[in-house]
């Protein structure tokens, strides 16, 4: 197994992406700590993992509460000896629309929430990983500089901001043997509500790929497990493109 004897913390594990990541890690042998604000969704993910023979524990923690995040990370380390993998897929309440029409406070508050969460959770993991001189920190979403879709508000801007954070973490943590990687996706249709109104967006994602299909949640988990494993030990400071060709070079 790729992640046998590894310990992973997944923030936002109750959501579709977080659940896919946790499932992928657990399938490869990792002990997964599922973190979020809603016990019911975390428990559902944990039960699925355990039913498949994996290991999962849950914790209700607000990723905007630095003290709570650090206390949880410390508890994981006391229990398991360290943190090998950390990933935060918690998203903010995105603001859609034309930038000229968006409220400045709405835009700023949304961005601040996202970046604060990412900074808090990464700092918590990095503190322990530096002590061990090893670890993998994953980000999700990625930055597509060719994107020219109007009306996205701060959505693509948020991805770009997180990428800036990822680049800085990669250069600062690299000397400590810690890898920092982003999974770049052009969108996962499975995460959209299965209602007629979302069909054009889901089909648009598929039509924009080179393979005629979009990445699935299973793909997300499988690729993340590989990237987090020692098989990918030479990969850091970059994006891994899982967009099926939608995001080109």
UniProtKB/TrEMBL annotation:
<dbReference type="Pfam" id="PF13561">
    <property type="entry name" value="adh_short_C2"/>
</dbReference>
<dbReference type="InterPro" id="IPR036291">
    <property type="entry name" value="NAD(P)-bd_dom_sf"/>
</dbReference>
<protein>
    <submittedName>
        <fullName>3-oxoacyl-ACP reductase</fullName>
    </submittedName>
</protein>
<keyword id="KW-0560">Oxidoreductase</keyword>
<comment type="similarity">
    <text>Belongs to the short-chain dehydrogenases/reductases (SDR) family.</text>
</comment>
<dbReference type="InterPro" id="IPR002347">
    <property type="entry name" value="SDR_fam"/>
</dbReference>
<dbReference type="GO" id="GO:0016491">
    <property type="term" value="F:oxidoreductase activity"/>
</dbReference>
